[in-house]
Every structure is written in structure tokens, then in C-alpha cells.
């Protein structure tokens, strides 16, 4: 009787103690390893814009426009970051609307120390927000390369703010935030559509609307200092490990596979571009090497987390060849002045890479939070995936063309788009910022 009485007294107490434990076991837990990895990845992606892209672009413009070009990356970082925290993150990654999110996280309302995002359940939601912020930053900054040497600084700043809401946020929600393209089955691991197609198409539209630089096709518009561009390209290359590897949203094998595929694509892109240039022009240029590498990096981006490393070699090689042709032949045949080949490298690369994801996607490798059962591509007997990818490409291009045109028209009405002829001849460093470099 005594033992029975003791058991009767202990069992309810034990149940009370164990019940919360069982309940918490079912709750998502923040993982220290994943969190540390994603903090590092976030820093790498921010480094891609500052100083990576700033140096890469600055080295390819003329001396009189170096500071003005760097200022665009600085401005994009500052303006987009604040707008993203204020409302951009909420509109992209909350709610269940097919076209745009909700305002439930405006100014990060409701995010606490223990908050995790449904898209990344092992890291703090505030970290997921910051990581995605760096993607928005570099996408807006990339567009500046297409209009280098001639766009007003005020126009670029206002354009970045408007375009973020008109084009980037809807596209990111459609693919990554639970929107209709993601629901349709479009896969984009790290930004082939959201980042590269959007940046490239926006750059092309902006270049056409602003018109060519003075002296385009007639004067020597060669780069001022390719050493800066090489350093910038190196920072971009390393930063891309955070860009693509971090898109696994955790420290694991999928992140490593994405990083390896990314590196190999950059290598093959650089090699193919250089070989083509060597054959056609007799000399492989340093500018060609870094351009091919960046083309490979941009093209592997949407496929990186879904493909095997050797697929990265193939994708990078295709990127090196096609992007080379676009930057050396198509650009001059069509007579559009995309100053730093944003469309030829990023736009075309994003299109190729998004389609290639539908070809090479490997079901066994692509299992993740976004694809719980994996995704098979054309090579694994699923041609439908390639068709879905093509729909994603077409929708992204169409919306970006329309949204960019609307954004630029609005900016034109508010403050104009292009500097005056005298200011352009003088150089944007002095005419817009009152500063010059001394070398």
C-alpha cells in the first residue's frame, strides 16, 4: 500500500515535469552551428557589395568617374538596408499572398530573441532577415553598372528605393516568400531570377532609356585601373561562397556542394572566356578572365544547391561562351551602351542558369526545406521542370521590364535621369561629388 501511495504521488509530478519537455522538443530550436555559419555567410554577401562590387566596377570605369561609381554601391547599401528593415522584409517573407506579403513584420515588429523564420527554422529570424537584406542590397547596386558614367547620383538613389518595391520585393516573394512562382515549382537556389535576371534586365532597360555615353563607339572608354577590378572580382568570388553556400540556410553538406559547384563554375567560365578571346583576338585579357569568372558565378547561382559539382563545370563553360558573345558581339550589333555589361553577364547568366537548373537538378542532392522530396531535372527524366523554369524566366523578365520602365519614368519626372553634357565631360566625381582621386 505504501508503494502504491508513493507512485500515485510521484506520477503526476513526473508527468508535469516531462510534459513541457516533450512540448519543447517539437518546437524549432536555434542551432549554434547553423547560426554561426549564417552570420559568416551574411558578412560575406555584404562584402560582395562593399568593397567587392564597388572595387570591381570602379576599376572598369574611367578615372574621372571612379568615386561616383563607388558612391552608387555605398548608397545602395545604406538606402536599401533601411528600407528592407522598415518594410521590405515583411512584404517579402510574411503572409501567404501569391503576389506580395503582409505588413506583420513592419520595422521587425514581433521579432524577439527566440523568433525563428518558417523559411529557416534553425537560425534566428533576425539573422534570416539580415541575410536576405544583403541580397536586396547587391541587386540594386548591380544595376548601377549599366548606367555608369552618366546617371545622376540623386536619380540612382531614388531609383534604388522605388525599384526595390516595384520589382525586387514582388519577385523575391513570388520565388522565395511563398508566392505563385514558388508554388508552381520554379526553383532558384540563390537568385538567378530574383537577383541576376532582375539586375541584368533592369540594367538593359536603364541603359536604353538613358542612351549611350558620350563617345560610345568612337572614343577610348577603356578601364582606368584593372588592378581594382581584379581585387573586386576576387572579393566577389570569395563572397559568392556565402551567397550560394549560405542559401542552404545552415551548415551542412548541401552548403558545401553548392560552394564547390560555385567555385568550379567560376573557373570554367574564366577559362572558356579567355580561350575564346585568345582565339579571336590573339591575346587573353585580364578583363576577360575576371568577366568570365563572374559570368560563371552568376550563372551557377540558381542551380548551385540542386546540382552536382561537375554540373557546375558545364554550366560555367556555357556561361563563359554565351556571355562572351553577348558582351563582345550582341552589344555592338544592337548598339545599346550597357557600360559594365550588367545585362551581358548577369542578365544572360541568370537566364541560362535558371534554365540549367531545370536540366541538371538532382533529386537526391536537392532535398531541403524548400524541396522536401527533392527536384529532378531533365537529365533525370523530368522535362516538365525545364518548362516550369522557362515560365519563371519569362514572368521575371516581363515584370522587370515593365517595373523598371515605370520606376525610371517616375524618377525622370521627379529629378531627371542623366547628368548634363558638360558634367559628363568633366566627370561625375567632380561634378556630382566635388571630389577627385589623385593617381
Topology:
Elements: H1 2-25, H2 32-58, H3 66-93, E1 116-117, E2 120-124, H4 125-143, H5 153-176, H6 180-184, H7 192-210, H8 226-245, H9 253-281, H10 286-300, H11 309-334, H12 342-360, H13 383-415, H14 421-426, H15 428-433
Antiparallel strand pairs: 1-2
Helix pairs in contact: 2-3, 2-4, 2-8, 3-4, 3-5, 4-5, 4-7, 5-7, 5-13, 7-12, 7-13, 8-9, 8-10, 9-10, 9-11, 10-11, 10-12, 11-12, 12-13
List keywords for this structure.
mainly alpha; 439 residues; Ammonium transporter fold; 68% helix; disordered N terminus; two-stranded antiparallel ribbon; single chain; 15 helices
Strand content: under 5%
Please tell me the total number of domains: 1
CATH class: Mainly Alpha
The major beta sheet can be summarized as: 2 strands, antiparallel
By CATH, the superfamily comes out as: Ammonium transporter AmtB like domains
The total count of helices amounts to: 15
Helix content: 55-70%
Find the structural class using helix and strand composition.
mainly alpha
CATH architecture: Orthogonal Bundle
> Strand order, biggest sheet?
1-2
Shape: globular
Q: First CA to last CA: what distance?
A: 96 Å
Low-confidence stretches: 1-26
CATH topology: Ammonium transporter fold
What's the count of strands? 2
Mean pLDDT: 93
Order of helices and strands: HHHEEHHHHHHHHHHHH
What's the gyration radius in Å? 24 Å
Amino acid at each position: 500500500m505504501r508503494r502504491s501511495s508513493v507512485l500515485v504521488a510521484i506520477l503526476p509530478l513526473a508527468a508535469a515535469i516531462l510534459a513541457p519537455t516533450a512540448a519543447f522538443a517539437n518546437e524549432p530550436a536555434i542551432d549554434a552551428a547553423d547560426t554561426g555559419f549564417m552570420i559568416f555567410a551574411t558578412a560575406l554577401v555584404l562584402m560582395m557589395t562593399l568593397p567587392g562590387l564597388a572595387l570591381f566596377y570602379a576599376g572598369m570605369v574611367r578615372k574621372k568617374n571612379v568615386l561616383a561609381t563607388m558612391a552608387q554601391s555605398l548608397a545602395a547599401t545604406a538606402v536599401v538596408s533601411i528600407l528592407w528593415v522598415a518594410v521590405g522584409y515583411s512584404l517579402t517573407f510574411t503572409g501567404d499572398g501569391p503576389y506580395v506579403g503582409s505588413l506583420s513584420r513592419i520595422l521587425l515588429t514581433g521579432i524577439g530573441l527566440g523568433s525563428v523564420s518558417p523559411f529557416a527554422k534553425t537560425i534566428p529570424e533576425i539573422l534570416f532577415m539580415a541575410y536576405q537584406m544583403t541580397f536586396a542590397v547587391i541587386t540594386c547596386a548591380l544595376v548601377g553598372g549599366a548606367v555608369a558614367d552618366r546617371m545622376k547620383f540623386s536619380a540612382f538613389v531614388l531609383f534604388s528605393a522605388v525599384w526595390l518595391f516595384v520589382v525586387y520585393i514582388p519577385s523575391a516573394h513570388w520565388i522565395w516568400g511563398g508566392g505563385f512562382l514558388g508554388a508552381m515549382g520554379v526553383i532558384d537556389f540563390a537568385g538567378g531570377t530574383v537577383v541576376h535576371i532582375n539586375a541584368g534586365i533592369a540594367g538593359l532597360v536603364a541603359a536604353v532609356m538613358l542612351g549611350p555615353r558620350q563617345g560610345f563607339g568612337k572614343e577610348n572608354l577603356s578601364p582606368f585601373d584593372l588592378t581594382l577590378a581584379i581585387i573586386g572580382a576576387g572579393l566577389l568570388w570569395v563572397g559568392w561562397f556565402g551567397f550560394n553556400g549560405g542559401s542552404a540556410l545552415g551548415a551542412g553538406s548541401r552548403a558545401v556542394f553548392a560552394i564547390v559547384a560555385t567555385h568550379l563554375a567560376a573557373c570554367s567560365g574564366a577559362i572558356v572566356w579567355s580561350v575564346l578571346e585568345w582565339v579571336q583576338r590573339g591575346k587573353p585579357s585580364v578583363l576577360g578572365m575576371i568577366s568570365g569568372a563572374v559570368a560563371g558565378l552568376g550563372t551557377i547561382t540558381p542551380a548551385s544547391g540542386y546540382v552536382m559539382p561537375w554540373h557546375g563545370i558545364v554550366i560555367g563553360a556555357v556561361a563563359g561562351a554565351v556571355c562572351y558573345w553577348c558582351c563582345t558581339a550582341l552589344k555592338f550589333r544592337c548598339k545599346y551602351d550597357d557600360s559594365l555589361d550588367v545585362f551581358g553577364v548577369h542578365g544572360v547568366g541568370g537566364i541560362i542558369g535558371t534554365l540549367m537548373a531545370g536540366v541538371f537538378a538532382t533529386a537526391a542532392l536537392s532535398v531541403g526545406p524548400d524541396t522536401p522530396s527533392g527536384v529532378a531535372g531533365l537529365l533525370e527524366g523530368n522535362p516538365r521542370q525545364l518548362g516550369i523554369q522557362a515560365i519563371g524566366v519569362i514572368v521575371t523578365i516581363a515584370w522587370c521590364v515593365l517595373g523598371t520602365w515605370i520606376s525610371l519614368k517616375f524618377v525622370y519626372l521627379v529629378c531627371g535621369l542623366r547628368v548634363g553634357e558638360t558634367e559628363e565631360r568633366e566627370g561625375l566625381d567632380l561634378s556630382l561629388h566635388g571630389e577627385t582621386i589623385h593617381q
